[in-house]
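**Protein fold record**
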Amino acid sequence: MMFLQWPAGLFFLSSALLVVLLYFLRRRAREVPVPALFLWERLPRGEVARLERLWPRVDLLLLLQLLIVGLFALAVAGPTLVRIRPAGATLVVVDASASMSADDLVEEAKAAARQAIQGSAGPWAVVAWSKPVEVLCPPTSRREEALASLGRYRPGLAGRPPLGEALAPFPRSWDRVVVISDDPSSGQGFEAVRLPFPANYALRAFSLRPQPDGGGYELLVRAANETDSYADLSLTVRAGGTEYMKNLLVPPGEEETFVLPYQGPVAQGLVAELSPQDGFPWDNVRYFAPGLGEVRLRWVGEEDPYLLSALRAAAPVMLSKEEPWDLTVAVGTRLEDDPTGPALLVAAGTPEAPLGERLPAGDWWAEDDPLLAHLRPWEWRAEAVLEARLPAGAKVALWSGEIPALARWETPSGRRVLLTLDLSGTDLPLSVDFPILVRNALVWLLPWQEGEEHYVGEAVELPPGARVVTEGREISGIWIPDAPGLYRVLDAEREWWMAVNLPSEEDAEGAVQARAESSPARERRPLWPVAAWLALGLLFLEGALAVRRA
């Protein structure tokens, strides 16, 4: 319905009488040339009604002038169109977290937001619910401005904070709070619009841990099948130049956890990817980085290129002559002092485990030990072994006759692995078992450390002097990753890797100041600008016709 704010403005219609009076006073009959006057004199004269005499004097210009006066009078009276809307002041919260990047969700979210704005009387405000919270449209009484702000809506790859943080920029009370998301919070005081998420496969978790016996690693994978049928998913784990593949069968609508054995490299991080691709490929990939990083290596004794190559294949080792050291490697020597920290001893003795005479190698006798995982020691060929006096508590993994050939033990200073074989008299360095043996030794020697896991959009405080390498540039201090991946971190002494994954959705019910049920509201739309512009347009039209007629 429509009503007038200033009905007295209609008195402006009285000026129409002045327009009519001036029109007839100024109007003059036009002279028309005719071929002969006697033709008109012979026409019979009849009685002409007063209206018929008046009508020829009324033309289009007079009608346009009267219409202009009427429209101006209506504009002065302030016409207002009143509509009943379901709600008044409306706050629209649109989820802009990573999951909203799935196919078609962006357009569906915009359509739901437009519907919420169109169905309320205003004022309106629009907020993108993500980290950080982005105000797309501050409180406004103009519906067009609120609708136009939806063009700036772009979901990122970050997570979303508790809902209360999205509402914090506008502490006022709202008649209606509309939350649009594929996974809205459950709570009272707001209207949740749930968008249908497309069929999806996802890696919910991916981690690595040493096996309990120290013989390798275990992959922990949690895969989700968000479809209506069984899914035979293909898992690919990449580390360095190696690939590990495994098929996973996941029931419909379920999450399954898998524990898989793994013997590949870990130092530079791992990437797990789930196939096939779907409408939201970002959650098909997860990253893992151990906390070990680059290993500072102290080398003592004879040089051995085979051993050094095997060490570099097993871990990112860096030879260092200065402390601190992560690992001591002694080859063919006698150490005067027990090393500090883990030590790999190859035909090398220490005060706690001195070596004796060189004796002929005997028959191999292997124990069930993690140092021999995936090895075939009975195929090794050796000329001699060194007699060793092991400390109490040492565990022998391999015997050569009655002489320990491979042993391990722990001390307050660190773990030890001793290989009493003289590598110059054996084919072990040339076999495929040698790098596996070195890797098994490092897995047991170096304590396992969980690496740092961060999320897109999280503020990461780097250690003093550390810098992260990203997109060809280095960042120090506070770093906010904008994409998942494995990132290399450097400082003055070493380098390590950091894993960044998609965040897990966090839902927390904020203090929403909104009515539980929105009440209808009147929307008033002034129409005087429409009337004024119409009058102005007709005025220009009337002027153009008058000039043309003259």
Summary: The first helix runs from residue 15 to 26. The longest strand covers residues 200-210.
